[in-house]
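Listing 4. Sequential folding, example run.
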Amino acid sequence: MHRKPGWQRQWTRLQQAALQELDAVVKRLPKDLRNKAHRIPVSLEPVPGKDLLDDGLEGDTLGLYVGEPYSENESGIENVPPQILLFLENIWDYAGHDTAAYREEIRITYLHELGHYLGLDEDDLFRRELD
């Protein structure tokens, strides 16, 4: 993929803002949820990769949870290690290139995907306003 001049600088800014927002979000979680949140890695990607697109993921997807939902009795045997993927360029575009809106969307998207990790379905996420 060909990137515009200055892309690396912009990418670094998007990553830094996302990491700061994620840190703030996790710190505000109740302790039991904070402990669970610390167990799942978050990968920051510009956009979904070819493999995900080939699997049918929309190119403008903001975030994705992959892996098995959290369980109090995890066996440690999983097909895909659980992780949250955040697609920062898509979130930046969705936020209209506004820094405050970007940070808010990082928060919303992360909490939505964390909800999937915790086993919430789309109806649960809607009721909790994490859709």
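-- end of first protein; second protein begins --
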Amino acid sequence: MNDNDSVTVVVTRRVMPGRKQDYLDWVRKIGEVARQYPGHQGTTSKVQGDDDKCHVVFRFDTIEHLRAWEESPERAEWVAKLEGIVEGDSHIKRLTGLEVLFAGQPHPKAHKMALVLTVAIFILAVTLNPLFVLLAAALPPVPDWLLVLIRIAVQVLLLVYFIMPRVTRWLAPWLAR
């Protein structure tokens, strides 16, 4: 992982019986503290039905900013407040690849990820194709590989920053099943 890559961390904890609301309050408060750190891009949480497992998702723009948060005295202080609320060890997973597109869903099934990505890429390709045809006609002759590179770069940027965050929010109930 490059120090300049954005990173998403999913922390899964087992909440003690009867303490779920205390844990959710803790998540809200630690999210407010994390928000004050440079590079913080959001904190979300997910409780899976009646299960005692809860997931917290922290997003930072660089691994360096994440490390600053993880090594901060404020975070250590807040983690210590979990005594009596959670049991066992936390499971921490760092995401930096395509799985980041599904970060709001801690464990979506691979076939669901593949289906959503396929549909999103297809719609984006069909929608943008006429624009790229016009662009190719308007530009002086350039190698085909360069046009393909530009098309892919535009599509990936649109997917990562605009389309997939919204699509995964809309499809969250289905992705979580």
